[in-house]
Amino acid sequence: MARPRSFDPDDVLEIARQVFWRKGFQATSLDEITAASGIAKPSLYAAFGDKNALFLKVLDRYHDGILGWAERTLAQPGPGREAIRQWLTGFIPYCSGERGQHGCLSINSATDGSLDQAEVRKSIERYNRRLEELLRARLRADRAEFRKGFDPDITAHTIMVVHAGLLALAHQRPDSKQVKAVIDQVMGLLA
Amino acid sequence: MARPRSFDPDDVLEIARQVFWRKGFQATSLDEITAASGIAKPSLYAAFGDKNALFLKVLDRYHDGILGWAERTLAQPGPGREAIRQWLTGFIPYCSGERGQHGCLSINSATDGSLDQAEVRKSIERYNRRLEELLRARLRADRAEFRKGFDPDITAHTIMVVHAGLLALAHQRPDSKQVKAVIDQVMGLLA
DNA sequence: TTCGTTATGTACTTGTAAGTACAGAATTGA
DNA sequence: TCAATTCTGTACTTACAAGTACATAACGAA
């Protein structure tokens, strides 16, 4: 037929993710992505569209990755409390120390005023909604574990808030013990 | 002596804050600030230095404003629990609805990878440290209100996390009732 | 091998934003 | 009124990044 692509789009999205994550959308130039990936601009444009479209693909991929992991973790057997604790605990490496310094790509994007594009907002909203649904479903299913008057809907949202807060403060590189202590304390709400 | 300044620097910082808050540091051009303020670039440069320096002044001013309010609120007489609830409740207008859509300038800046300048980071760190100190001091002072085994240090940090999370998720314009419900639930940790 | 097709790389255009040179305006002190 | 000084506005330079034109390379099919 014709000349085949010389690169795997997924590899490029992975590299682009790293650059966007480190520097943010605005401050990342396509030249940096071409430098990091070795792919020239016309190929990037042909494969992904313009910078906005490329970023959106990166962000969607990022969301899908986290959602997949959340689905697996929150579906595990045993007490719902432990599933949720394990889900939160899984974020500790991304909320503390060196690795936490860039926080979460989704939250970084949500707080970036320059990304007011409707599609980015929609992607983030869908992601947050889906995550909260997973939490809520598990809390509802296992509500017998919890005290009387326990409200799974509000609790799911509170956990989302804590999760967002940990990742927002991750840029300060807190100690992982401190993050763990917060999680432990918040787990007290699941009494 | 010489020709006096034709504008009040504080007014300009206030206008610059609005623009930076809405669009973020990178995406804000000085031309937009000159348009919004009516002050030409050379005057801005003479008064504030370059774009980074201007932003830093804006951010410091923002931090000072919130810290001043926090000091007043958290120093009020009565139960510490109520002081803290009032402090958190005061953020509701900035965490919900239309007004919440731009979140918090400090958190937006903390999550902006392009703002890796050491001074911005330091300003944010100082702000967070000071805020947490205020909470911790009040929780320690009133620890008699709380249950046995209550840990004011961890609790202060948890409240910081919740506060950050509410302001990070503010960009989704949640309903103020939902924000209030989260605050109520978290106040349960101060039992 | 040759043709049609699609990818690639170089080098360009274009737009925009940061920062500044300079001439002239506004003020106070003499 | 003049002089010294500092501010202001216009218009510029410079840098950089987004996006693209175009010639060429690499493939499969016939």
From TrEMBL, chains A, B:
Domain of life: Bacteria
Domain HTH tetR-type: 6-66
SUPFAM superfamilies given in the database record: Homeodomain-like (SSF46689), Tetracyclin repressor-like, C-terminal domain (SSF48498)
Coiled coil location: 117-144
Keywords noted in UniProt: Coiled coil, DNA-binding, Transcription, Transcription regulation
GO MF terms held by the record: DNA binding
DNA-binding span(s): 29-48
Protein's recorded name: TetR/AcrR family transcriptional regulator
Record has Protein biosynthesis as a keyword: no
